[in-house]
Design goal:
The protein has about 200 residues and is of the alpha/beta class. The chain has seven helices and six strands. A six-stranded parallel sheet has the order 3-2-1-4-5-6, with helices on both faces.
């Protein structure tokens, strides 16, 4: 029995370390994760974290079970065009979804209601079902168009949580910066955790 079901999407924006830490913490918090991975995200994972993940979905599911020491079916990887998956249906999709990191192109498509990929469709489902969608962009500077798209999403109830960690806890490593943002995210998801946010 899992504590919570969460849809987690990762796109081609920089910041794969945040994603890896978040996935690890969700597993350790006994959440079931429906994982959506864009083609560009695979490239960024390889570039930033030397993570070479299998292309085949079944092989990748087995790989992640070992990589993150999960329970059976705790991480379920879905293909980018798997339109019959649970996350594509309003009657069965998890009520919570996080896109980390979220590219500007992805949030632009979501803001305009375009559902060309499963990531965009899953986000659309969460919004229409009045669930909780959190997007975590990592871009600077934002153009006016980016800001307009973010405003549109915010007005629709989406939480915009930019990947901009604080320094109150005097981090000594990049891992601690990842931990700070993941802790803030888990607070919003109302999932218990032991990550540090302040000097405690």
């Amino acid at each position: 029995m899992f504590l919570e079901k969460v849809t987690l999407a990762v796109t081609g924006a920089s910041g794969s370390g945040y994603f890896l830490h978040l996935l690890d913490v969700l597993v350790k918090s006994n959440c079931q994760v429906y994982l959506l991975l864009s083609d560009a995200a695979r490239i960024v994972l390889k570039t930033e974290a030397d993570e070479q993940w299998p292309e085949d979905i079944e092989t990748l599911n087995t790989f992640l079970e070992k990589r993150f020491n999960t329970k059976a079916k705790q991480i379920i990887v879905l293909g980018r065009l798997d339109w019959f998956s649970v996350v594509a249906s309003g009657s069965s999709a998890p009520k919570k979804m996080v896109i980390c990191p979220c590219s500007c192109g992805t949030f632009a498509s979501i803001a305009q209601g375009l559902s060309k990929t499963l990531i965009e469709r899953a986000a659309d489902v969460v919004m229409k079902e009045r669930g909780q969608l959190i997007i975590m962009p990592r871009e600077t500077p934002f153009s006016t168009l980016h800001l307009r798209n973010l405003l549109t999403l915010s007005e629709l109830g989406v939480t915009i949580m930019a990947l901009a960690p604080g320094f109150y806890h005097r981090p000594q490593s990049i891992a601690e910066l990842h931990e700070f943002m993941v802790a803030r995210l888990l607070d919003h998801l109302q999932i218990a955790h032991s990550s540090k946010r302040w000097c405690e």
